[in-house]
Amino acid sequence: MAAISYKLSSIDKKGTKVLLENVDASQPMFFLVGESGLPPKFEESIHGLKKGDGFDFSLNSADAFGEFHEDEIINLPIEEFLEEDGTLDKEKFRLGSLVPMVDEEGHHVRGTIIEINETKKYIKMDFNHPLAGKDLHFEGKVESVRDATNEELDHGHVHGEGGHHH
What we know:
Elements: E1 2-11, E2 17-23, E3 29-31, H1 40-46, E4 54-59, E5 73-77, E6 98-102, E7 108-117, E8 122-126, E9 135-145, H2 150-155
Antiparallel strand pairs: 1-2, 1-3, 1-9, 4-9, 5-8, 6-7, 7-8
C-alpha cells in the first residue's frame, strides 16, 4: 500500500504543462500497488520508492490512459435515461456528468455526457477515459508505504485511513 501527494499536469501540443490535479500531503492518494487501476508505467516509475522519496516523470498518452478514440463517442437514445414519468433528471444527467453504465458484454463502463439533444432525442456520450490522448506529467512525493493486509489484497482496495471502510 502506498500513499502519495502529487501534481498531475498534461502537456499540451506546445509542450506547456497544464495543471489538472493537485493532491496535497494532508489528503494523499492511497492505493494498492499492482491493484490500483493506475497505468502500469506509472507504477513502474514509482516502484521501489520509500517514504519521503520524490518523483518527477512523464508518460506519453499510450503509456498513460491510452489514445483518444473517436469511435468511443456515441449517441444513445434519450429514452435510456428517462425517469418512469418520461422526464429527464437534469441534475443527474447534465453536460459533463460522468455516468456509470453497463455495455453489451456486461462490463461496467463510465461515459461523460458531452451533448444532450432533446429535440433529436439523444444523449452523446464519450466513453474514452477522461485523460485519454493526453501526455501526462507527475511530480510528487511518497507519503507512506506499508505492506497490504490480506483483507486489502482479498478486497482489492485499501482499508483504514485513506481507504475504504466496511
